[in-house]
Amino acid sequence: MELRHLTGFVAVAEELHFGRAAERLHIAQSPLSQQIRLLERDLGVRLFERTTRTVRLTSAGQALVEPARRLLADAAALRRTVRAAQHGETGRVTVGFGGASAYAALPALTRAVNAELPGVELVLEGQIFTGEALARLTDGTIDLGVAALPVRRGITARVVRAEPLVCALPEDHPLAARDGVTFADLADERVVTFPVARGSAVREAMVQGCHDAGFAPRIAQEAPDSYNLLALVGAGVGVAVVVGSARSIHLEHVVFRPLVGPGVPVLPIALAWRTGNDSAALAAVLEIAERVLPTPADYVA
Questions:
Q1: Residue 55: its pLDDT value, please?
Q2: Helix 3-15 / helix 59-86 crossing angle, nearest 10 deg
Q3: Are 195 and 130 in contact (CB under 8 A)?
């Protein structure tokens, strides 16, 4: 039994017409008829009842249709896997990410990779801040990271989001009545933020903004991720500076107001990888990422 014979059989079974099936397969009708005869001889059964006007499946032919379709689909998947391996499009790519920006960006990439690179396994490792991502890219424990610029020597990065900073506030906070909040407005506020030891670019931007406004922030508590951070805000523990993508996290008693005034940065969020990483799987993922996560048109380096 040959796959080409099964391909011919399925085409005739679906068309119930040898001429149309041959046209669909881009072959002459005579070779197609020969394929069906050889398949029938191999199986020892008649698959079609043929007259000068009609073609019908026999009971044996009806029993063969679905198994033949599954076998052809498996064979096609096998071809894709082998061809992908030849081009390096199989393997594993480990992605380190953390924060609201990554949660906003990664779903599009993972869906596209799963659809277009079935041989590549994306391993997602969450709760990794910028400093941790850059360190792990350098030591090779992750292949791709989501990090804020700037990156260190030996790391290549491409910006995929430009994140404005916003202030998360308890809904009954006096500042919640304003259209915008300045860093100076936070001088007397208790602030919740991310751990200093983990290299959070958002925390660094918040501390720098407060220093530029003439004060050091009063850190009330640290949180390991955006969800817990906003939960602390909603509980009235303090206010927080977060990226605009955090607005997608809906928690009761939390409102967001834009940070306004001179010197408020926009954080460039990038996909980053170790310069010289020659993984073909990583290269294939990056090619997809360039399409589904383009650099924002209004981003200026």
A1: 93
A2: 130
A3: no
288, 95 in Cβ contact below 8 A? no
Residue 150, both tokens: 């700037």
Residue 217: predicted pLDDT: 97
Residue type, 275: T
Q: What is the pLDDT of residue 263?
A: 83
94 has which bridge partners?
A: 123
Q: Matching CATH topology for 3-86 and 94-156+270-292?
A: no
Distance between CA atoms of residues 153 and 158, nearest Å: 14
Could you tell me the fold of the domain covering 3-86?
Arc Repressor Mutant, subunit A (1.10.10)
The whole-model pTM stands at: 0.70
Q: Per residue in 137-146, pLDDT tens?
A: 999 999 999 9
Angstrom distance (rounded) from CA 174 to CA 257 = 12
* CATH fold for domain 160-266: D-Maltodextrin-Binding Protein; domain 2 (3.40.190)
List the chain domain ranges: 3-86, 94-156+270-292, 160-266
Radius of gyration of the chain (CA): 29
DSSP code, position 173: S
Give the pLDDT confidence score for residue 59 in this predicted structure.
94
pLDDT on residue 298? 79
So what's the pLDDT on residue 29? 92
Regions in the chain scoring below 50 on pLDDT? none
Q: Residue 51's pLDDT is what?
A: 86
Torsion sign over Cα 219, 225, 229, 232: negative
Distance from C-alpha of 222 to C-alpha of 281, rounded to nearest angstrom: 37
Q: What's the CA dihedral at 40, 46, 50, 55 to 10 degrees?
A: -90
pLDDT at 300: 73
Alpha helix positions (H), the chain: 3-15, 18-25, 29-43, 59-86, 99-116, 130-139, 201-212, 226-234, 280-292
Q: Give the span between the Cα atoms of 253 and 233, in whole angstroms.
A: 8
